[in-house]
Amino acid sequence: MSDKKNKKKATRDRIEKPRTVLQQLAVVPDKLFARPFRRQYACLCFRYRPDEEGFEILVVTSRDSGRWIIPKGWPMKRKTAYEAAATEAWEEAGVRGTVRKKPVGSYTYLKLLDDGDVAPVAVSVFQLEVLESVAKFKEQGERQLAWVTPDEAARRVRELELKSLLVGFRPQGRTSRPSGVRKPGKS
Question: What number of other Cβ atoms are within 10 A of residue 76's Cβ?
């Protein structure tokens, strides 16, 4: 019996398990810095709560891994950074609204590319107050959507810098709140 167990163990040891992105980078760390960071644009989509107590943030799942993220994507020809971010929010989550032209923050992450390579990505994040939401949109059925508190949004995402941005987020500038809806923190 011990020979059978040893053979099974030897077979298991020969089968290579897939390595995580970080494990792959540990073997060849120069890949991370061999080229400049790629750029993406994201929308931190929020809406004021109907009970007039604060706001909620929209998180969506990625199409490939199913992890929780905020809507984001690559630069688009003939679109500014904030316009590209707003387009991603519309395509990935079916939401539109007032988008700020200046980023409210940024974060970085490692993107696993289709060819198996890993690229560092810097993401500029733009605030979008959601004023319209539709049930049918381009990537409907490919993603899950959830409106959650900032703390819950931070709990769901993986990227540490994004977690910090979500927890510390406060809507900036003048927004077009419906009458009767107070700014968070005001009585």
Answer: 14
Full domain range(s) for residue 68: 21-168
Q: Is residue 58 a part of any domain in this protein?
A: yes
Q: Identify whether 75 is part of a domain.
A: yes
The number of distinct structural domains making up the chain is: 1
List the pLDDT tens digit at each of the 187 positions of the chain.
Answer: 556 555 555 544 545 555 555 565 566 666 666 778 999 999 999 999 887 788 999 999 998 888 999 999 999 999 999 999 999 999 999 999 999 999 999 999 888 878 877 888 999 999 999 999 888 888 888 899 999 999 999 999 999 999 999 999 999 865 655 444 444 444 3
Largest CA distance in the chain: 77
Q: What's 131's domain CATH number?
A: 3.90.79.10
